[in-house]
Amino acid sequence: MQTLSLQIFGVSTGFITAGAIIALSYSTVPVFLSHPNEVSLRHLRALFSSGSHIFPQLAAAASTAFSVLAYTAPPASPSRYQYIVAAAGTIGIAPFTILVMKPTNMTLKEIGEQGDEGIKKSGGEQRVQELLRRFGRLNALRGGILAMGAGVGLYAALSQRN
Q1: Residue 29 to residue 43: CA distance in whole angstroms
Q2: Residue 80 CA to chain centroid, in angstroms?
Q3: How does pLDDT run across 66-95, given as a tens digit for each residue?
Q4: What pTM value is reported for the model?
Q5: 3-class DSSP state for residue 2?
């Protein structure tokens, strides 16, 4: 029963979190692009703040569930390795965010803090729009990484049922 609960929790938390991250990219970035950059950057800061309090914790929870499943799986079994991959994939958003997304995020944050002056210093309105689009693509990719981890976890769970 604990195994089934962990499987359901890990897979559902992973997919729901991935979906939320991807949805943010496809729903908010177009809205940001349709408003003045100063307004968009202010709202993006709020998005960064709220997202940083939700998504890493959910990814860590899914990863923990997959880690426990890997630990309790029979040694050298395919499911053990699949759960290890699922755990790494779901928590993989953390290093991706730090190593790949952070430069774009920090640039957008710094420009937003400086307002119109920051927009001018950054290279103008077009540069900010370019950075917002980049954020949207990278954020969607981050959600895809999480979804792949959850997908491997789902595959492992279903493989054990056969």
Answers
A1: 11
A2: 24
A3: 999 999 999 988 999 999 999 999 999 999
A4: 0.88
A5: helix
Residue pair 142/21 in contact (Cβ under 8 Å)? The answer is: yes
Phi and psi for 76 in degrees, rounded to 5?
60, 15
Count of Cβ atoms closer than 10 Å to residue 26 Cβ: 12
95-144 pLDDT per residue, tens? 999 999 999 999 888 888 877 777 777 777 788 889 999 999 999 999 99
Which residue do the tokens 């949207």 mark?
Answer: 136
Geometric angle at alpha carbon 132, from 93 and 23, rounded to 5° = 55
Distance CA 68, CA 76 (A): 15
Q: How far apart are CA 32 and CA 22, in angstroms?
A: 15
Distance (Å) of CA 16 to CA 13, 42, 135:
5, 26, 20
> In this structure, are residues 145 and 93 in contact, taking their beta carbons and an 8 Å threshold?
yes
Query: What does the block give as tokens for 130?
Result: 């370019």
Contact 156, 82 (CB under 8 A): yes
